[in-house]
Amino acid sequence: MQAEIVSIGTELLLGEIDDTNATYLCRQLTGIGFDVERRQTVDDNRGRIVQVLQEARRRSDLIIITGGLGPTPDDLTREALAQVTGRPLHTDGAAEQRLQAFFAARGITPTANNLKQCQVPRGGQLLYNSCGTAPGILLEHEDCIFIALPGPPPEMHQMMSNDVLPYLEDKVKEAEGQILYTRTLHLCDIGESSAAELLADILDNEGNPAVALYASPGQVRVRMSTKAGSQSAASRRLNRAEQDIRQRLGAHVYGVDDETMEMAVGNALLAAGATLTVAESCTGGLIASRITDVSGSSRYFLNGYVTYSNESKKRLLGVSEGILEDYGAVSEECGRAMAEGARQDSGADYAVAVTGIAGPTGATSDKPVGLVYIAVADEQGTVCEEHNWPGTRQQFKQRVAQMALNMVRKRVMGLV
Amino acid sequence: MQAEIVSIGTELLLGEIDDTNATYLCRQLTGIGFDVERRQTVDDNRGRIVQVLQEARRRSDLIIITGGLGPTPDDLTREALAQVTGRPLHTDGAAEQRLQAFFAARGITPTANNLKQCQVPRGGQLLYNSCGTAPGILLEHEDCIFIALPGPPPEMHQMMSNDVLPYLEDKVKEAEGQILYTRTLHLCDIGESSAAELLADILDNEGNPAVALYASPGQVRVRMSTKAGSQSAASRRLNRAEQDIRQRLGAHVYGVDDETMEMAVGNALLAAGATLTVAESCTGGLIASRITDVSGSSRYFLNGYVTYSNESKKRLLGVSEGILEDYGAVSEECGRAMAEGARQDSGADYAVAVTGIAGPTGATSDKPVGLVYIAVADEQGTVCEEHNWPGTRQQFKQRVAQMALNMVRKRVMGLV
Fold first, then answer.
1. How far is the alpha carbon of B14 from chain A, nearest alpha carbon, in Å?
2. What would the CATH number be for the domain defined by A2-176?
């Protein structure tokens, strides 16, 4: 079934806020098997809202609208919906009673604008808002379902979970007898084109599960999807495909679905009963910050050293004056000494260290912006990799952090 | 002038990533006086991309497209643009040379897909990508300007700043004789309603510059805007308004336009000729990472301590066993001891320390999730604030980091 999302609000088109509602709705709808091919955003202008809805209606079985349900004259979703469907607005008595009670409890008399929120196009129903005053609207009109939800994310989320998703899952099952199940594998240290080569026949093949490759900055993902009548039937197929993909991609697969790299590192450390410390120069604390984004990371993360100055590399990590003089702070020798020093000082089982040139300044004739050394020390010894990733300062930091975490993951899991 | 934004990418319609590019572009375009009334998102389907561009073209003077410029067969923006304008694609020799050199430096032979990135519709020009391989495209066709930018945000941002915005500013000036000049002041440690009260008469007044207040989670901004024929005429008006607003809001104003809190801290430290160290528990390295997001931060940032475990608070910062036993790690006493210990160990002029409960676990009966102590030590002594900010782990870390940096800024500038 085709779904389309329409986000309403001048604040979106002024760039004041990200439209996270649209992202959430896309994920939820495609997650149960709707196809979402288009999304539109329009300002608080009734004529344009009507036009956008009319266009969307010609293409889609379902239109989900967010925003424009508030109590101000700028909120025009109800009126636009009535106009597009030719169904006049009337006041829902039960909703009006709830709203009157809500205001009475706060000692306020609702205005005509407030009461407008209880209006619904003929034949539609209001959706209860458990954390705000604006009800949603659900309206089946001819061959199209219109659903209007309030803009504030917490109100929209609860309405989706409580009412809209169960209703839509039934619609999909009714129409197609089955719904879509997906699983995503996250890859590291491999480019999109190399991954595509290793998976070529799976990607080309219109198999079941369908397998597709997605790339975003520093991130490649493999998404498997299959339509099935039950979770267990879907899981069998997804497990089989996952096994095949993992055999081809090996250690490049670090996580599944919501699992981030920092979670994967944490899970590996917990499984090994091991602890970690981090010594950072060019990433400036980003690696430690990502590790500690995971709740419960105190079980394996002891402490981090952000040794930006040479003096602090010597004092905190015991890097020798000789290494700094002979090789400089951005060198394999310094990276190794940082990792070994951090491991020794902290008593952690694993230490990862990074030293590099984030830029845009700081390059020398033989050390360009983007040069970095990443070292991991454990009881077996120390490994060190040299990379060169020019880019913005932020890109560089992110990329180095991701690779450093991946080196830890592989080392802890015995993959390198 | 009317502008419309078209975001291309199946990953957007699967809800895998937020379309922050669209937000950024809306802000930039409305910032120089374009009207943006609509925004569309479409999947990697050539037919639909063409249709969306054709529709947008009928309404708009400018269409900015993001995404679909990569090297895979899914990347179809170039082809769609050629089809919509009837201008065939050809290869740009200079771009191809750059790409060949880029791959040669990495010892890789580019594939035919890679080389596709050097194609441009006849009459168009490629925009240089300083941090990626996908050039942008700028094409004036009949009465419409088409601009295609790569999807990765850092690549898109630099292309906008370097090439697109200066070009568009000229276009607006040409068409309207004057352009919109804006200046934004960033506020910290004050809510939207308090700021609105202090600026009430300026906000109500339809003055020149126009002044408006914007709030997003944890962030309040004051935006001044004025249309003028020249930068100097605009600057005179904006300076006057800024002075007035600063008088009312005082230390709550921390930055102007692109100036982030970490830049403001860096500028204050440079002006004072002072150095900084950071001791972090609950923020786990985020403060240090933000400080080192600023190029040149090595001039004032010496090093950071991410002391997650109690043992590391004692060993690295000299926090006494007594403090940890009597008051616990999340206490004013521990925060102060961390700041003082970090200052002493590093030799920095200023030290900031944070200790708190990021959650969702770790709360006790008298210490809830969201409790945090932020301390700043300098030669005058140590100040410490207690806050309670429940929310998600990430929200909490961001908010604590922002407030800790602001305390350093105010302390260095002698404002507290």
1. 5
2. 3.40.980.10
